[in-house]
TrEMBL record:
<dbReference type="InterPro" id="IPR003597">
    <property type="entry name" value="Ig_C1-set"/>
</dbReference>
<dbReference type="GO" id="GO:0009897">
    <property type="term" value="C:external side of plasma membrane"/>
</dbReference>
<feature type="transmembrane region" description="Helical">
    <location>
        <begin position="304"/>
        <end position="325"/>
    </location>
</feature>
<dbReference type="GO" id="GO:0030883">
    <property type="term" value="F:endogenous lipid antigen binding"/>
</dbReference>
<dbReference type="InterPro" id="IPR007110">
    <property type="entry name" value="Ig-like_dom"/>
</dbReference>
<keyword id="KW-0391">Immunity</keyword>
<keyword id="KW-0732">Signal</keyword>
<dbReference type="GO" id="GO:0006955">
    <property type="term" value="P:immune response"/>
</dbReference>
<dbReference type="GO" id="GO:0048006">
    <property type="term" value="P:antigen processing and presentation, endogenous lipid antigen via MHC class Ib"/>
</dbReference>
<dbReference type="InterPro" id="IPR050208">
    <property type="entry name" value="MHC_class-I_related"/>
</dbReference>
<dbReference type="InterPro" id="IPR011162">
    <property type="entry name" value="MHC_I/II-like_Ag-recog"/>
</dbReference>
<dbReference type="GO" id="GO:0001916">
    <property type="term" value="P:positive regulation of T cell mediated cytotoxicity"/>
</dbReference>
<keyword id="KW-0325">Glycoprotein</keyword>
<feature type="domain" description="Ig-like">
    <location>
        <begin position="187"/>
        <end position="287"/>
    </location>
</feature>
<dbReference type="InterPro" id="IPR037055">
    <property type="entry name" value="MHC_I-like_Ag-recog_sf"/>
</dbReference>
<dbReference type="InterPro" id="IPR036179">
    <property type="entry name" value="Ig-like_dom_sf"/>
</dbReference>
<protein>
    <submittedName>
        <fullName>T-cell surface glycoprotein CD1a-like</fullName>
    </submittedName>
</protein>
Length: 336
């Protein structure tokens, strides 16, 4: 029954795919992240959160040890008992993890201050399979991963990773709980929140796009900027083009969240000032129904010219009127 649900979900998620503009065929992951900042032996700051891809779905109240559900559908199909069990597990881990790390910091050559990040979750691939993962990173680099009920050192972790894995593998009860989370709880939960949050996750919001120029990168050069904002879902394709050719040197910022849950990005092109003719920004997104947004640079420059013209013409007319009045009514102007 579980594999039937997965197959049906994969079909739903693939609907409306655009090979250039969307990534609905890509993996979808749910992950819980614990970031621990070890400032010294007596001061540790711990932050817990959970994410469906780039969308935060859960937070953590460090005072009460309770999970914070950030979306109406964030509970999925978890029972009250499962939620309570998860809270107790993560609360216990928040206590045990710093204790173990402090105790072995010198042996593992962890130098204060340092960061440790633990990630636990599962991923739905385009074929419908769900795979669990559990990783531990030191200073941003993975040193351990969980597989077949055991912590294994990464190849790049060296002797430090081997030492850490030996210690973590001693906590058998914790490993058994993790194994259940990876093989049962997380796959069920991922499917349930994808179903419960389908309307929110699959909503289509059309992007708005406009052009501007940035600081000149050098003599006789110009920085062109294409802004795209307010779109959902996140996958999008934006390029500077001339004709049907994508311009080399196009650079894209990160895709950043807006306050309303939509997304925003900028795409830059550094060109010679004399080589801007025919350039345009092309935007493809699933919400546009195959009708790409095309923003031509000539139109943008023309609109700027019209604005300047709209300002200058009244000024010229006012100057001419003042000059005419001065000639016709010199006595009036002599009063000032």
């Amino acid at each position: 029954m579980l594999f039937l649900q997965i197959s049906l979900l994969a079909v739903l998620l693939a609907a409306g795919d655009n090979e250039d503009a969307t990534a609905s065929q890509e993996e979808i992951s749910f992950k819980m992240i614990q970031s621990s900042s070890f400032y010294n032996r007596s001061w540790v700051k711990i932050q817990n959160s959970a994410w469906l891809d780039d969308l935060q779905t859960h937070g953590w109240d460090t005072n009460s040890g309770r999970i914070i559900f950030l979306r109406p559908w964030s509970k999925g199909n978890l029972s009250k008992k499962e939620i309570k069990d998860l809270e107790e597990f993560f609360h216990g881990f928040c206590i045990l993890m710093p204790q173990v790390t402090h105790r072995h910091a010198s042996q593992w050559k962890f130098k204060y201050p340092f960061e440790v990040q633990v990630t636990l979750g599962c991923e739905l691939d385009p074929g419908g399979a769900i795979v669990g993962f559990h990783r531990l990173a030191y200073q941003g680099s993975d040193i351990l991963h969980f597989q077949n009920n055991s912590w294994l050192p990464t190849a790049k972790g060296g002797t430090r990773a081997q030492d850490v894995s030996r210690v973590f593998n001693q906590y058998h009860a914790s490993k058994e709980t993790v194994q259940i989370l990876l093989t049962d709880t997380c796959p069920r939960f991922l499917l349930s929140i994808l179903h419960a949050g389908k309307a929110d996750l699959q909503r289509q919001v059309k992007p708005e796009a406009w052009l501007s120029t940035g600081p000149n990168p050098g003599p006789d050069r110009q920085m062109l900027v294409c802004h795209v904002s307010g779109f959902h879902p996140k996958p999008i394709w934006v390029k500077w083009m001339r004709g049907e050719q994508v311009q080399q040197g196009t650079q894209q910022s990160g895709i950043l969240p807006n306050a309303d849950g939509t997304w925003y990005l900028q795409v830059f092109l550094d060109v010679e000032a004399t080589e801007t003719s025919g350039l345009y920004c092309r935007v493809r997104h699933s919400s546009l129904g195959g009708q790409d947004i095309l923003l031509y640079l000539e139109h943008h420059q023309g609109s700027v010219g019209l604005i300047i013209l709209a300002v200058m013409v009244p000024l010229v007319l006012l100057t001419a009127l003042a000059f005419w009045l001065r000639k016709r009514c010199p006595a009036y102007f002599s009063l000032f």
